[in-house]
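Hey,
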Amino acid sequence: MTVAPWPAKETLRLAKLQDYDILDTLPEPAYDDIVVLAARICQSPTALISLIDANRQWFKAKVGLDVDETPRSLSFCNFTIQQPGILLVEDTRQSAQFREHPLVTGSPYIRFYAGAPLVTPDGHALGSLCVVDYQPRQLTEDQVQGLQVLSHQVMAQMELTRYAKQLKLANERLEQRVQARTAGLTTALQRLLKTQTKLVKREVALRHSALHDPLTGLPNRSYFIQRLAQAIQLSRRQPKHLYAVLFIDLDNFKPVNDTLGHEIGDLLLQHVANQIRLLLRKSDLVARLGGDEFAVLLDNVPDKEHAIIAVKRLQKQLSAPFMVEGRKVFIGASIGITFSSMGYRQPEAALKDADIAMYHAKKQAKQQLKSQLKTQLKQQQILSDSLKSPVVIQDEVILNQQFAVFDTAMQGQASARLTLEDELRQALAEDQFQLYYQPIFDLVDRQLIGFEVLMRWHHPDKGCLNAGDFIAIAEEIGVIQQLCHWLIQTACQQLKKWQQYPKFDRLTMHVNLSLLQVRNPQLISQWQAGLAEHQLPASAFQMEIAEQVLLSSDPTITTTLQQLKATGFGLCIDDFGQGYSSLSRLHHLTVNTLKIDRAFIRDLTNPSGKDIVKTIVDLGNSANMAVIAEGIETAEQLTTLVALGCRVGQGFWLSEALSAVTIDQVLAARSQQQ
């Protein structure tokens, strides 16, 4: 006899049940508590969590029953899963459906049954939460509602367990991929993985690395800016609270690095970091800004002289030779200082002024060194003439360390910045800004799928300026909010227009968000207003953020990112691979897209560069995140990326950034061709 195949719906249901991997598992308190509560609420001797397999009914939890499973053919719950709501049988002997049932006519003589189906989010009934009695009875409306609520809790617990297992499996697979790739990477990749903490194995260390320099262990620029912002706020509330910002740049570091190698250079940076840290108070903050630049926050200093003394002590200590591999390495430091008395409102402005003062100090040191060398040459020339022999200059390092305190006399760069600030405000009034859009393509079929929004300033004298030339100043003086509002309205209007062209209704836009923009409390409401006005879904936009923004411990930033996700926006990590991304944060905020840093695309001709890109592509694929390659500039890069499995990209080889008018013409022409 031929056995009839399962109906398609039942086949899907059984597959879904197997997907939860719950059958034949050990008892769990979460489920046991639910059946106890169900029995008490419904005042029934027996309560069961029943799952209907192909040929059996299996009990995950039970009260008042000793067996673990029964044949499906004898299961009341088999009928429960075939209807949308609760199956309620108040008297089985009066039920045409059940009065001849073996469990009614025989042991255990069931007289009452109520079962609430366990329904998955996509509509498959896997079993039921049921209560059984051995005498006819009724349930009150509250009891019926309670049974339904508890059935939802059973399903929620199953979903939670399933998700936890899937997440664990995904992490295990990802760890295996990362470990498999690590063995073959070159020194460049090894250094990258050290600074990023090998992704999975050092998850806890990544949280620390987000705000610290991996080489020296000092806080990084992001951490320093946060602490400096706190000092500024305190100083504004308490005018007597004095702080000083030091900007330190090492002298003679580049020759050491170039001559003795980067390994020695790294050791030297670690030595300098330790020396600075040891000479300051525990309450002072030392940070490495990058390269050979350091910053110090002397918070709550008694007076300016105290800071000056600390600077002189630092310079004296750093002038001592550093012994490495039997060699004496001489290093010095130029230091710029600024004080809270300048009335700062933004931490970036204070750091910038300290930087200006540092360059002033370095200029003074060079002038003094030049004067000393001239004097030395004159003296040696006199000695040479008297001895009738060639001039011999001794192999001696002359260190001319200088420090300078920022004041109004150092307004060369500051004046230029003030001019730029005025021009920025004027540009807003005269509508000198324009958005350009760099196309993003599917690299396999070369189809246009979206754009990255790029802001340009058409300066009346300097020509077209990129955002990098003015955004930092715009943020510093507060006009960024107006620019952001204008960008949102313009981008929404353009995308709505372009989506109306045939075949382009699914175009998306990528918009870059800086750290300051993410901190803007009006960001979400501005975007919601723009979307509502132009009738666009939030999913049409991807918000590109830097890795340091993703990993920030600032609760304001975390809340904004969560709100962006809740609204429906996609999150894209820009320049991925250069920072310290944490897998837990990627999953917690459900990051949609990773954009590979263009430095790795340029390095595709090297095996190490290719391995890095492949690792990022595999990471994205395993975590169900899209991966975009930016900065594609050659046909060879494009071919290699496709071979590595990267499907989406942008760059000058595909298209430069275009004006809205040009894109209108292109889309109109392509629509006519189609």
